[in-house]
């Protein structure tokens, strides 16, 4: 085999691997456009993007599926924060099991400890829920704060038992599974989303209402506001580019889609081509550099292959999406 032919074969294999992708994209949300109270529910709940770009509804129709995480030892097993409980969904969402009782409702977020199997955290209107045994038993591990509504909880990918939670009064950090919490930032901003960079795990971002976009470069110990991004607007999430440690995207109502290439120092508007500036979620594709998704309120999910300079429709028309989550393919 000639070296030229071997080189072309390697390029072909790499292209096929890129097309196949190493992650599955899930979305959670509800089809709300045109809905009339009392009418049968439209497509709602957990959605999976197939390899041919189609979206399929998984599990059962539920308008209150808000967040999804996955088992690191078996990524085909998902954990979901739903209005009536924390659910385990095996085989990519084919079989479902409720892990919480009737006293646990209105879940906002769910996060598994990737370094300590069986530990599950859930964000609730009255605090933080914790299970040490895969959902068999539950307890409260809530920070001391005058308002206990928590919208987000994320376990640090690099250290077992280290968790950051965001709620109505800002951001809180624990190093010991919620045994003790400390306030780390936010100053009464209502946190809407919390994420950790996969490229540089010491980098975190917290979007908020009333407080703009908060950024941390020391693992969530201290936070600063992204001053050049309008803090008067409601920002609903941010995402770090897994291919570029300095690139961040933010989405919200009024700001539309904004992208920074310098760690949040300056921002560029990338909303042109979208039908609205009301954005619920943005997410970078870990398998395809320069690809980004944007969920537009009651319009659809859109995708860009040039970092938001141009957009095209990707499906889920009429939806309100709460989560875009890339999950690794099971080995």
Which terms would index this structure?
331 residues, mainly beta, Methylamine Dehydrogenase, Chain H, four-stranded antiparallel beta sheet, 46% strand, disordered N terminus
Structure description:
This protein is mostly beta strands and 331 residues long. The chain has one domain (24-328): YVTN repeat-like/Quinoprotein amine dehydrogenase (Methylamine Dehydrogenase, Chain H). 5% of the residues lie in helices and 46% in strands. It contains one helix and 28 strands. The chain has one helix at 3-20, and strands at residues 23-31, 44-49, 55-58, 65-71, 74-82, 85-90, 95-98, 109-112, 120-124, 127-131, 139-140, 150-155, 163-167, 170-174, 181-185, 190-196, 204-209, 213-216, 224-225, 234-240, 248-253, 256-260, 268-269, 279-284, 292-296, 300-304, 312-315, 319-328. The protein has a four-stranded antiparallel β-sheet with strand order 3-2-1-28, with no helix packed on it. β14 and β15 (181-185) form a beta hairpin. The longest helix has 18 residues, at 3-20. It is globular and about 45 Å long. The chain starts with a helix and ends with a strand.
Give the SSE map:
Layout: H1 3-20, E1 23-31, E2 44-49, E3 55-58, E4 65-71, E5 74-82, E6 85-90, E7 95-98, E8 109-112, E9 120-124, E10 127-131, E11 139-140, E12 150-155, E13 163-167, E14 170-174, E15 181-185, E16 190-196, E17 204-209, E18 213-216, E19 224-225, E20 234-240, E21 248-253, E22 256-260, E23 268-269, E24 279-284, E25 292-296, E26 300-304, E27 312-315, E28 319-328
Antiparallel strand pairs: 1-2, 1-28, 2-3, 4-5, 5-6, 6-7, 8-9, 9-10, 10-11, 12-13, 13-14, 14-15, 16-17, 17-18, 18-19, 20-21, 21-22, 22-23, 24-25, 25-26, 26-27
